[in-house]
Design brief:
- The protein is 29% helix and 29% strand.
- The protein is built from 7 helices and 14 strands.
- Helix 1 packs antiparallel against helix 2 (41-57) and helix 6 packs parallel to helix 7.
- The longest helix is centred in the N-terminal third of the chain and has 19 residues, at 3-21.
């Protein structure tokens, strides 16, 4: 896939988000979806940019987006390749105005994320995959990402919005000595770049929440497992797009 173009699309979506984030007129406008999760104007703006750009870039590849119309399983079960999009991951972080929200674009092939693009609009940092490896692009440099592979005294990255008591036993099992907290798909990126070693999520997520992060993490040498055991790899395009809990390891 055209990595340069995908980075441009991610950044263009980020500009659309920031236009609203930095606007006193619109930044506090929040609707609610059927499940009562917050939906801002920024979600919609980012979605529209990505849909238009991807439709032009790869007209033959279908798109599943959090903000798009639901695609029936009877149709999407036959997809062997498709885009999976979260136009604004970390809507709560957007509303709380802490900057820890991202644009997530993933390419799924045979139900596995093979490419991931994660853009952080506020900082301008871009995480992406290329040739089976993962990279972090800042204003001044491009860095190859590699997990820590630490054997002890590990660091966990934890959710700001979805912490759970079930985490404690998991973290003890892996000799976690410290933790950091961050929002959105940035948790996957923290493990991918070695700032953390483990990320456990007990509560539910959707497939578009994890796909780009999984691709970036795996490109850096990390792994993601279903549930809390190192047994079953994550799969996508399930009948229900709801994920189980999962365990990300950077070792």
């Amino acid at each position: 896939m055209d990595t340069k173009k995908l980075i441009e699309i991610s950044k263009k979506a980020g500009v659309a988000i920031l236009d609203i984030y930095n606007s006193t007129e619109f930044s506090s406008v929040v609707d609610f979806k059927a499940d009562n999760s917050p939906l801002t104007l920024a979600d919609k703006a980012s979605h529209e940019v990505i849909m238009e750009e991807l439709s032009q870039l790869t007209p033959d590849i279908p798109i599943i987006s959090e903000e798009g119309e639901e695609v029936a399983y009877d149709i999407r079960k036959d997809y062997d390749r498709y885009w999976l999009i979260d136009p604004l991951d970390g809507t709560k972080e957007f509303i709380n105005r802490n900057g820890e929200f991202t644009v997530n674009i993933a390419l799924i092939e045979n139900n596995i994320p093979i490419e991931g693009y994660i853009y952080v609009p506020v900082t301008g940092v871009m995480y992406y995959t290329l040739g089976g490896e993962s990279f972090k692009q800042t204003e001044n440099a491009v860095e190859l990402l590699k997990v820590n592979n630490k054997a002890e005294k590990r660091i966990a990255v934890r959710s700001k919005s979805h912490a759970s008591p079930e985490e404690e036993s998991i973290l003890q099992k892996y000799d976690v000595q410290d933790s950091i907290s961050v929002g959105s798909s940035l948790k996957f990126c923290m493990v991918a770049e070695g700032k953390a070693d483990i990320y456990y999520r007990h509560g539910p997520t959707m497939e578009w929440d994890t796909a780009a992060g999984q691709a970036v993490l795996q490109g850096a040498g990390g792994k993601i497992f279903k549930g809390n055991e190192e047994l079953e790899q994550f799969q996508y395009n399930k009948k229900s797009l709801l994920n189980s809990g999962f365990l990300c390891l950077g070792f």
